[in-house]
Amino acid sequence: MTALLTVSDLRLRYPGGGFRKPSPEVLKGVSLEIAPGETLGLVGESGSGKTTLGRAVLGLAAPTGGSMVFGGKDITRMPQRQRRPLAQDLQVVFQDPYTSLNPALQIADILSEPLIAQGVDANEARKRVGELLDRVQLPANAAERYPREFSGGQRQRVAIARAVALKPKLIVCDEPVSALDLTTQARVLELLIELQRSTGVSYLFITHDLSVVRHISHRVAVMYRGELVETGPVAEVTNNPKNEYTQRLLLAAPTADPDRQRERREARRQLLAAAG
Ligand SMILES: Nc1ncnc2c1ncn2[C@@H]1O[C@H](COP(=O)(O)OP(=O)(O)O)[C@@H](O)[C@H]1O
Ligand SMILES: [Mg+2]
To answer: Which pairs count as long-range contacts for 136-139, CB under 8 Å and 24+ apart, including other chains?
Structure first.
């Protein structure tokens, strides 16, 4: 099957630095593919470049090298005006639903905005808002309320409803459950999985949390200092990691089981000792 998104040797340096002191390269030749209906989990420690990769795909950060092809179109250096129609196919859910939803707008307006921008008339938009709320399991009367009236998990449901409103092919999810408590995390992940089952949407799912990535991904890509050090099926990467950084990342992940924790501590000690 042809990939929905193909990223090839992507490089990115944020502007700044200058002639004498170039700014550091944040993405150092990243290559990945996402198939239709697939979730690629992108994991790595804070500062490794995960958000930057997501922003590049969304056209919010300009690559300095390499290429990105989405739905057969080269989007590497696509100007904003040409990007606009892409909004239909490419959406985003950010970590913080408190800042990503306009506090001055009722939920109905937040959800109908993208529909109306794509030419859906107001009556049809109102009907679709009701359907969207239902899809993300929010009550119909949520439409007349404001973001501040909801919990973090409910707000993230609103953000997800907005992202799926135009039936996109890919949603970049950047730490979408990291601000939520564990029970709420699990429910929101279930919702994302259910939406994928029913619509065939693909996810680029960015997280620092390996237990989250295990839950939702088909494949996992591990980022370390701007490079992908390992990519593979989720079970392979998380049960039998080949790369030493992936092994360390897995050992650093918390586990509820004290025996398992003791094993991990020992394995970590041995790895560190071996590394010198
Ligand atoms: N807008 C920006 N301008 C300059 N440097 C940035 C910007 N955003 C992120 N960085 C730097 O790029 C690197 C990667 O950051 P980021 O992509 O946010 O990583 P992650 O999402 O994995 O935590 C970090 O060193 C960060 O300081
Ligand atoms: Mg980030």
So the answer is: 136/160, 136/161, 136/164, 136/191, 137/191, 138/107
Sheet holding 5-13, edge to edge: 25-34, 5-13, 65-70, 73-74
For the question of whether the overall pTM of this predicted structure is more than 0.85, the answer is: yes
How many angstroms does the Cα of residue 121 sit away from the middle of ligand 2? 36
Name the residue type at position 203: Y
Supply the residue whose CA is at minimum distance from atom 20 of ligand 1.
47
- Span 89-134, pLDDT tens digits: 999 999 987 788 999 999 999 999 999 988 999 999 999 999 999 9
Which of 26, 46, 205 is the best mutation target for the ligand 1 pocket, counting ligand atoms within 8 Å of the beta carbon and taking the most? 26
